[in-house]
Amino acid sequence: NGRRRIVVYANTDGGDMGRVVGDIRALIAKQQLPTGTFVSLEGQFQAQEQATTLIAGLSLVSLAMMFLVLYSRYQSAVLAAIIMANIPLALIGSVVAMWLAGV
């Protein structure tokens, strides 16, 4: 693209990458950048952000599909919602059971 650029490489040394990038963004936001310049954060963090967005979207789609399957089976949105409301409780119960079993 013919633009000049400055590349800065860094490692987080075991730190939380999201927190480190948040701190970097906060520091950059305080700076006055010259006209025509911009900051782009790339690398592993960019891939992690894209994966997180994709997983969140797919999770919502899967929950909607589960609701549709339950609705088609029971022909009642209320019953499907009641069943869906128990999913977090089932997850909590399974984690507690695994903790008690020492897994």
Could you please describe the fold and organization of this structure?
- With 103 residues, the protein is mainly α.
- The chain has one domain.
- Helices cover 67% and strands 0% of the residues.
- Helix 2 crosses helix 3.
- The longest helix has 31 residues.
- The mean pLDDT is 90.
Radius of gyration: 22 Å
**Molecular shape:** elongated
Global mean pLDDT:
90
Into how many domains do the coordinates divide? Answer: 1
Spell out the helices and strands N to C: HHHH
What structural category arises from helix and sheet content?
mainly alpha
Q: What profile does the largest beta sheet have?
A: none
Protein name: Membrane transport protein MMPL domain-containing protein
GO molecular function: xenobiotic transmembrane transporter activity
Pfam family, one: ACR_tran
Organism: Hemiselmis andersenii
Quick tags:
mainly alpha; 4 helices; elongated
Which SSEs are present, and which pair or pack?
Layout: H1 17-30, H2 44-74, H3 77-85, H4 87-101
Helix pairs in contact: 2-3
Compact description:
Keywords: Membrane, Transmembrane, Transmembrane helix. The chain is built from four helices and no strands.
